[in-house]
Amino acid sequence: MLSIHLILFLAFGAVAVAGAVNLLVQRHPINSALSLIAVMAALAGEYLLLGAEFVAAIQVIVYAGAIMVLFVFVIMLLNAGVEEETKGSRVAILFGIPGMLLGSLLLAWVLLRHSGTTAVAIGALPGAPATIGELLFHEFLLPFEITSILILIAIMGAVVLASKPTVPGGGPAQKVKD
Amino acid sequence: MTQNLNLWLIPVLPLAGAAINGFLGKRSSRAAVSTVGLVFPGAAFAWALYVAFRFSSVELPYQEYLAHWIRSGNFAVDFAFYLDQLSLVMLLVVTGVGFLIHVYSVGYMWDDPSYYRFFTYLNLFMFFMLTLVLANNYLLMFIGWEGVGLASYLLIGFWFTKDSAASAGKKAFIVNRIGDFGFLIGLFLIIEHFHSLNFSAVFEQVRPITSETAGAGLLTAIGILLMVGACGKSAQIPLYVWLPDAMEGPTPVSALIHAATMVTAGVYMVSRSHLIFERAPTALTVVAIIGTLTALFAATIGITQTDIKKVLAYSTVSQLGYMFLACGVGAFSAGIFHLMTHAFFKGLLFLAAGSVIHAVGGEQDMRKMGGLRSYIPWTFLTMGIATLAIAGIPPLAGFWSKDEILWKAYEANWIYWVIGAITAFITSFYMFRLLFMTFFGDYHGAHVDEHGRGSHAHGHDGHGEPHESPMVMLVPLMILAVLSTVGGLVGIHNGFQHFLEPVFGSEFPQSITEGSGNTEWLLMGISVLFSLAGLVLAYMLYVAKPYLPQKIADSLGSFYEAVLNKYYIDELYAKVFVKPLVDGSTSILWQGVDRKVIDDTVNDAADGARHVSDEVRHMQSGNLRSYAGWIAAGAAVLIAYMIWLGVAR
Amino acid sequence: MVPLSYYLVLSGILFACGVTGFLIKRNIITIFMSIELMLNGVNLSFVAFAAHWHVLAGQVFVFFVMVVAAAEAAVGLAIIIAVYRTRETLNVDQVNLLKL
User: Fold this and answer.
1) Residue B360: phi, psi to the nearest 5?
2) What is the pairing mode between strands C2-3 and B75-83?
3) What is the helix (H) or strand (E) element at residue A161, kind and residue range?
4) Rounded distance between C-alpha atoms, residue C81 and residue B170, angstroms
5) Taking the CA atoms of chain B, what radius of gyration do you get in angstroms?
6) What is the Cα–Cα distance from B337 to B340, expressed in whole angstroms?
7) Closest by CA position to B67, among listed B46, B88, B81
8) A100 and B636: CB-CB below 8 Å?
9) Measured between alpha carbons, how far is A119 from C3 in angstroms, rounded to an integer?
10) End-to-end CA, chain C
11) How many other CB atoms sit within 10 Å of the CB of residue B209?
């Protein structure tokens, strides 16, 4: 039944899929990054449709706004150019792609056949920040604290790994002569 | 009432001697080794005499139980000893002659570097032989049987660095084993049907069985199989081939093992099993025929041999044939009688031959001897007595026992007597040939300034002349000479036979004990004549006209060659049995099974693992994408499986 | 009223695209972005199930996934920078020193 919910779902879904496919097709990484941002924006719309306001906001601010920006910075920093054509692995092409296709097709078939009429209403589960916050600080307090430590460690690790060597020829990143 | 005779002491004392010499002998002095090596067998002999002394006061057969051995269901075998007249005779012969030979060996082996090892093995042999003789069941006897085979192997190959000695030891052991195979199957049959191996139990069950006169049956089978074992141990046709080769061992070994005791084990075993044989006429006939043929066959070979010990070896084979002939016609006590006298004179012959060899510095070829009677008179005297004894000249020992056998053979079948008499003639001939070639005529030997051939006795440095042996070697010779002279007198008026009557019963029903006296005297006279004829012929050929033997040999041409080469039997065996076995073993078992199947399986398994890992190695390519590909493929498989699990409900 | 399975299929499509990108792309950064795409797909299915079963913990989990993705992106990119410094290339096929 064609409701506004379905139309919006399909619209955002189309954008997301298009962005994903574009990511695969593009040869320059910056284009892929921008497509990924489009995917994330579309997904934020999907979240809104499901009533997850907080998650949608976080998606746009953190994922698209911070992580993807980081990606773009690195691409520009490293001056990544157009991808070269190298013969990599036959296994990946021969086994990986058919396998993945098979798996996802199977999954899709199963899901569609057995889904029944269980439907999700628009805005089904309102995820207001207050309620999410309550969960975070009550039931999921431990994971919350641990993730904060995780971020701290990630920051330190990133700084150490990416730093320029202070000793000429030393440091974590040393030139390896082939 | 039965008193404890402590029979176990008799075998165990030499075992103790062997152990002491074996473990401590290497670092001990000659004197210490000799003392140990003599005291223990001497003590065993003394105890055997004590047992003989007490013999009449114990209840016979006397059985002494030592320990449990096998208890399996209702089958039981123990370490236990058995004494009756037969084992007493064997006991005294083994310990007595054995002790004398030990004394002789002190002198003969004095200069050998492995002096202690010799006495260890010799005492070990005594232990096994006494176990064999005293056992109360077939299995313990078999242990002794195998043990003497082992000791024989060790002693024949005593100078094992010499190729021929090592091979001879091997040959003896292997040929013995072939006989033992038959023996074992016979034992299995006994276990199967009589459910025991104890002499008393088995014979109790055998006694009521009627004789198998109508051809073959169980007892015939057992008898023939036991005889196969006896053929191996006692060197009868077709398993005699090891005995001549066994002369590679030191002469005391030849005297003790291959003349007086071990080779007689077969005769003892057959006599012990006489109840079985008496009820299986076919088996008895087989025994008699083998014995007769062997006696003749070996005697003919003995005529041509030039090695003094080989002549004596073939003579032993021949005399053993006589003993089996006796058993085969049912005259078991005659066989044992001959066993006893044979131990005396054959032991003496070997020891005297050793004395001769010692005198000429290791030379064993009779053509290089001669005229020795002026150099070594005592040896000549004792050897002469022994030769008279073996030739059957009355009143020495050999005459009584051999005549007894010939008489009983005649009573069974005159053909046996004819062959036996001819063999007696040949025996007398070649023994006197030996005596004349060695002691008469001119000395053909090298004057002994080079070290003797092989590692016999001691090297004479610049002695230049054959010399008499020391007293320690001469005294046993003299004692044995006395025994060879008077030892046969126990046979007068069937005294010996009566002594053994409790064991063998009155002789095999067929024979007439007090035979038609005239025939007996006649046959006795004929056999004495044959013996004297042999003496005269030998004298003619080897003293009076020494050029004749060569002419006769030449005129006989290839026939003589055949006899000289022992009828090529060894070569025949090598071709028919040994070579196919060795070839088959090499090509099938070694190349085929060991190499191809076993080795290749292991190698191929390793190769296969290597190949598989070679292929799998390519997965570690270092390439990120291929890893990802594998992960994706694996995940897809898992998902598919889970879906199938979920959907297939 | 959109059936739940539609959301899941969309999520699956995004995930599949992510895997495909991982397998066929040669630029390390692009591969990394494919991983992010996979994570996004998974996030969508979390939220969809949370809405379906009215369990808010699903959305909280998405929160944590994002945090971890951020951390991972930071460290991962730092590694990529380090690799670039040493190997002078962003082609993943040329970073194969660990081959047997």
Assistant:
1) -95, 20
2) unpaired
3) helix A141-162
4) 81
5) 31
6) 5
7) B81
8) yes
9) 4
10) 54
11) 15
β-sheet bridge partners, residue B75: B72
Q: Cα(C60)–Cα(C47) distance, rounded to whole angstroms?
A: 9
What pLDDT was estimated at residue C88? 84
Cβ pair A83, C92 in contact under 8 A:
no
pLDDT of B457 strictly over 70: no
Residue with tokens 């044979």: B342
Spatial contact of B147 and B155, defined as CB atoms under 8 Å apart: no
Joined together, the tokens standing for residue B467 give 């010399």
Q: Which of B75, B128, B123, B133 is nearest to B99 (CA)?
A: B123
Q: Are B347 and B255 in contact, with CB atoms under 8 Å apart?
A: yes
Q: Provide the greatest CA pair distance for chain B.
A: 118
**Cβ contact, residue pair B632, A94, below 8 Å:** no
pLDDT at A98 over 70: yes
The CA-atom distances, in angstroms, between B584 and each of B404, B593, B601 are 49, 11, 22
CA distance C95 to C73: 19
Cα-to-chain-centroid distance, residue B164: 19
How far is residue B232's CA from residue B125's CA, in Å, rounded to a whole number? 18
- Backbone phi and psi for residue C27, each to the nearest 5 degrees, phi listed first: -85, 130
What pTM, to 2 d.p., does this model score?
Answer: 0.70
Which residues face B64 on adjacent strands?
A: B81
- Band the pLDDT of A169: cuts 50, 70, 90: low
**Closest Cα partner for B285 from B412, B425, B174?**
B412
CA B177-B163-B126 angle, 5° bins: 50
User: How many pairs of residues across A and C have Cβ atoms under 8 Å apart?
Assistant: 259
Distance CA B15, CA B548 (A): 52
- B639 within 8 A of A101, measured Cβ to Cβ: no
From chain C, pick out residues whose CB is under 8 angstroms from the CB of A159: 78
Give the model confidence (pLDDT) of B590-633 as tens digits: 887 888 888 888 888 999 999 999 888 877 777 787 788 888 88
Q: Do C99 and B621 touch (CB under 8 A)?
A: yes
* C15, C20, C97, best to mutate vs chain A, most A CBs in 10 Å: C20
Q: In angstroms, rounded to a whole number, what is the distance separating the alpha carbons of residues B175 and B164?
A: 16
Find where tokens 């379905």 sit: A6
- Picking from C69, C24, C20, C80, the residue whose alpha carbon sits closest to that of residue C43 is C69
CB atoms within 10 A of CB B544: 10
C5 touches chain A (CB under 8 A): yes
Percent of chain A residues topping a pLDDT of 70:
82
Run of H or E residues at B129: helix B115-134
Task: Report the alpha-carbon distance of residue B320 to residue B227 in Å, rounded.
Answer: 13
8 Å CB contact of C26 and A1: no
In eight-state DSSP terms, residue C36 is H
Read off the pLDDT band of B150 (50, 70, 90): very high
Query: What CA–CA distance (Å, rounded) separates A39 from A23?
Result: 9
The ipTM is: 0.90
Q: Identify the band that residue A44 occupies on the pLDDT scale cut at 50, 70 and 90.
A: very high
Does residue A67 contact residue B603 with C-beta atoms inside 8 Å? no
Cβ contacts of A102 on chain B, cutoff 8 Å: 636, 640
pLDDT tens track for B489-520: 877 767 777 788 777 775 544 444 455 667 77
Asked if C48 is an interface residue toward chain A (Cβ–Cβ < 8 A), one would say: yes
User: Which segment, B211-215, B459-463, B548-552, is predicted with the most confidence on average?
Assistant: B548-552
Helix residue spans in B440-470 (DSSP H): none
